[in-house]
Please model this.
Amino acid sequence: MWWILIPLVLILSYGIWDSFSQPSIGDIPGKFEEVAFVRNEQNKGGILRVYAVAVGDIEHANYEACADLFPTNDYGSLTKVYFFDKSKPYPTKLSIDAPHFDGSQYEAIMILKRSGSDKK
Model:
């Protein structure tokens, strides 16, 4: 019985540890902070998610790794991540309709898009 119970407890412990030790945007170089988010209702078609992220350390920021942490879905979904300098004004509300924020007030330093696959 112990030969079954000990491996089972070890596998379960590893699964729990792995679930709670996933990286977040705070773990990536750049001092990232999510400041705004909007998502469409998705009654038909793909999901559109738009994020605004303030960056505290622009020189050492890993934008690609940060954008990879935001969710995507299959079948035409799109995730847009706008990065803003934390020392300058940045939006705290976004619109689902483009351009998503007032470009005359705020200036994005980087824009990255992620999309899900269209495989069935």
